[in-house]
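Data deposition worksheet. Section B asks for the primary sequence of the deposited chain exactly as it was used as input, without tags or linkers unless they were present during the calculation. Section C holds the resulting structure in token form. Section D is free text for depositor observations; keep each observation to a single sentence. Incomplete worksheets are returned to the depositor.
Section A, Depositor: J.P.
Section B:
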Amino acid sequence: MASAFANAKKQIDNIAQILHSDYEDRKKFEKAISLLKKPQKLIKKTLKIKLDSGNFKKFTAFRSQHNNARGPFKGGIRFHPNVSEDEVKALSTWMSIKCSVVGIPYGGGKGGIVVDPKIMSQPELQRLSVAYAESFYPFIGPWKDVPAPDVNTGGSEMAWMLEAYEKKIGYQAPATFTGKPVEMGGSQGRTEATGLGGFYILDDYFKDRKLNKSSSTIAVQGFGNVGYWFAKLASESGYKIVAVSDSSGGIYSPKGLNIDLLLKLKEQYLSFENITKRKEYKSKFKFITNNDLLSLKVDVLVPAALENAIREDNASDVNAKTILEMANGPTTPEAEVILLKNKIDILPDVLCNAGGVTVSYFEWVQNLSGYYWNKNEVNERLKKIMDKAFSEINEMKKKKNISFRQSAYALAVKKIIDAMILRGRV
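Section C:
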């Protein structure tokens, strides 16, 4: 299977074929495309921390800074055993596209530490977060690179990193990190922002296609922050969520699922598989594998877990009419060819999950101005941005008779290339 970064480069090459006729100066255009296929800077460090046992341990850490023609680099820091150079390069590329899709003034960045946080204590994670901020501080800042939480990181890690960063520079700079606790300048509405942004896109799509939400069925793969909030908001609005899953597998009920009840049960029994093993829930829920979930006959399939969930080997099994991507890079380019041939609409990740980075942008704006908005203001501003992005992408899709992803990439890549040309970089 191709690497995530190979997939990201392939997507840029595909879009170059659509965009090249917009540029008279072919040399400039080709140079811009080749620059977009590699990060401007990749920083790799070894972090050394003291464990609770008294022993010292080394960890590999990365930060990929893709393109800052439209503004400072922006992107999460993840703590995961599978973090790699290839992954952060791909994710920083997608962040550049994503920020451009929704029109916020950032370029893409992404960072990570190769670590399994599940086997670390809280004090160890704090020391690791501090070590990351101390090691990478020359490369980040409100007008340089603005990190945020990602897989296995959250408000606590951002708070620890901000404190370590401010000690290094000697003054307060809350706009350096987003996704902070509200008490430290975090934005209202940030927790549910990614799921809410995806829900707004779902609503826009249903309105445009004149579809009936109450008779629709939705399956959600992934029940972390994004999958949970998307499922909860869609369910409360009248859509029927018939399946959700975590890494152990999923729960299916054709009558529809109570999302808040499932959250409580998952917190109690730790996995969906454990829930369905219990006598009192065996008859209520059917346990399915993640592969079963991908092949359910539903109106909308929502991959909200990790990248490469839908691949060439399982794309033909997908029975949904529409795929709404809430994870980063959940569909490989090879799988996309099969899905489009089967007349399945794919609402792309760079649009659907851009709610998180949009509210991160709001947090940055609020930190820089020292003036804060309430949750309603945040959600209203987010809706305006998501609605506008969907409308522009949908319009171009119809005009050029291309896919949603091609339309999103064409609009986004053009904005980045134009900024590079205006700056004289090409």
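Section D:
Residues 38-176 form a domain with the Rossmann fold fold (CATH 3.40.50.10860).
The first helix runs from residue 4 to 19.
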